[in-house]
């Protein structure tokens, strides 16, 4: 009964914290707004096997392969209802995915992509806040929209992609 009591107390605390207005009051206001999670990108050493897993084994809707030479990747999107997975495979020897796969032979999570309502305002403010951006200007991403990447060392070890909503 001690464990049950502790679990009930913990659940009550979580509900209180999640409903708390003081949490949102601590978030500084920005000129731009962070939006929804667009996708989680996964580097894969074998794109066909990965496509097959999601399509034939898990039954997901899987896009065709699209080459993005400017980013050095092949991309495939897996629809999940509330978000997507982006399967990434190297395109060319200078691909950032090739170097990622050299260090992570079986693949793994590469980055997360979050939508923003104003990518230029986000860039300006993030630079003022000393967050490194991996390009001087946005590039056109897999969805045909401007994207930037934030340095993982400035984002607690996560490569973050921001995409214009």
From TrEMBL:
<feature type="domain" description="VOC">
    <location>
        <begin position="36"/>
        <end position="165"/>
    </location>
</feature>
<dbReference type="InterPro" id="IPR051785">
    <property type="entry name" value="MMCE/EMCE_epimerase"/>
</dbReference>
<keyword id="KW-0479">Metal-binding</keyword>
<dbReference type="InterPro" id="IPR029068">
    <property type="entry name" value="Glyas_Bleomycin-R_OHBP_Dase"/>
</dbReference>
<dbReference type="GO" id="GO:0004493">
    <property type="term" value="F:methylmalonyl-CoA epimerase activity"/>
</dbReference>
<keyword id="KW-0413">Isomerase</keyword>
<comment type="function">
    <text>Methylmalonyl-CoA epimerase involved in propionyl-CoA metabolism.</text>
</comment>
<dbReference type="GO" id="GO:0046491">
    <property type="term" value="P:L-methylmalonyl-CoA metabolic process"/>
</dbReference>
<dbReference type="GO" id="GO:0005739">
    <property type="term" value="C:mitochondrion"/>
</dbReference>
<dbReference type="InterPro" id="IPR017515">
    <property type="entry name" value="MeMalonyl-CoA_epimerase"/>
</dbReference>
<keyword id="KW-0170">Cobalt</keyword>
<protein>
    <recommendedName>
        <fullName>Methylmalonyl-CoA epimerase, mitochondrial</fullName>
        <ecNumber>5.1.99.1</ecNumber>
    </recommendedName>
</protein>
<dbReference type="InterPro" id="IPR037523">
    <property type="entry name" value="VOC_core"/>
</dbReference>
<dbReference type="GO" id="GO:0046872">
    <property type="term" value="F:metal ion binding"/>
</dbReference>
<dbReference type="Pfam" id="PF13669">
    <property type="entry name" value="Glyoxalase_4"/>
</dbReference>
<comment type="similarity">
    <text>Belongs to the methylmalonyl-CoA epimerase family.</text>
</comment>
């Amino acid at each position: 009964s001690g464990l049950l009591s502790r679990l009930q107390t913990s659940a009550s605390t979580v509900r209180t914290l999640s409903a708390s207005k003081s949490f949102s009051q601590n978030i500084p206001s920005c000129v731009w707004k962070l939006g929804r999670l667009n996708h989680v990108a996964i580097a894969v050493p074998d794109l066909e096997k990965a496509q097959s897993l999601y399509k034939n084994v898990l039954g997901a809707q899987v896009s065709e392969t699209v080459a993005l030479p400017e980013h050095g990747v092949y991309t495939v999107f897996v629809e999940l209802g509330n978000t997507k997975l982006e399967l990434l495979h190297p395109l060319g020897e200078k691909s950032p995915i090739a170097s990622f796969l050299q260090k992570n032979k079986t693949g793994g999570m590469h980055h997360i992509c979050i939508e923003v309502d104003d990518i230029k305002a986000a860039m300006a403010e993030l630079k003022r806040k000393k967050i490194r951006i991996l390009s001087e200007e946005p590039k056109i991403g897999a969805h045909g929209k401007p994207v930037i990447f934030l340095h993982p060392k400035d984002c607690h070890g996560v490569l973050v992609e921001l995409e214009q909503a």
